[in-house]
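Retro notes, item 3 of 5
We never archived the inputs for the NDP complex last cycle. Fixing that now. Sequence and ligand:
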Amino acid sequence: MNTTHKPIALITGATSGIGLATAYKLSELGYNLIITGRRKDRIDDITRQLISKGTDVLPLIFDVRDPQAVAKSLGNLPEPWEHIEVLVNNAGLAAGLEPIQEGLLDDWERMIDTNIKGLLYVTRTVSPGMIKRGKGHIFNIGSIAGKEVYPNGNVYCATKHAVDALSQAMRIDMLPYGIKVTQICPGAVETEFSLIRFHNDRNKADAVYKGFTPLKGEDIAECIASALTLQANICINDMVVMPVAQANSRNFFKKEV
Ligand code: NDP
Ligand code: 8X3
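Structure as it came back at the time:
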């Protein structure tokens, strides 16, 4: 229930990693939160914790790949939850790391449907309210994989290049309404990302972060907060954020482990 007159932020994929850290950061900044994800147990637990910090929370369980579920969950929000000022399009994943000729169709569908179509469904539902109120800030979580391609990154890189293109495009569309669009493009962030990419192979996932200090979800939440708290006349369009030990998607400085 939203009982206080705090601004409202919606974060997709708040059950883990970057989305979870962003929920806590925006709670600290004084936002009431709509948090989403598919794992109800986690959403319930996070909701309890945020409420104990004085944040009002509307927890919503749905799959961003399902346009009907997105419309049902976000299309008719009760007052005052419909007054979303900040949208963080974060829900996303990589599945698989194979050359194109060996890729699994199911992995491809999941990435395309979540990273591109899910982001579109949510934005299509939420942005008209921002336009009506003449106020809003949309964050799209892209990736260094949306700026470069790397071996076997094929479809994941394509989805994040699409996020890059959509961020530029929606910035143009939102221009007359004063709505900011910021794309955040992280390098390696240690979350559940690699575990999902490698289909729950813990050894492969852990190996990704060996020999250097990756970013944490909290680091990306700080970047979102820094763009969000600038003066009204400033918009950070694009932020590429790397661990110090990572120059680009392929060049890491790793210590022997
Ligand atoms: P996590 O796997 O830790 O978190 C992913 C979040 O997305 C979870 O909350 C998950 O919730 C949600 N999600 C995934 N699929 C769906 C779906 N179909 N419907 C609804 N929610 C979904 O990964 P990260 O925090 O690392 O990833 C967040 C974003 O950051 C992604 O877009 C990713 O591509 C991007 N990114 C990550 C980087 C990294 O190195 N970690 C680097 C660059 C970008 P649930 O399972 O409960 O539905
Ligand atoms: C996640 C970072 O380099 O694994 O988007 O694609 S990377």
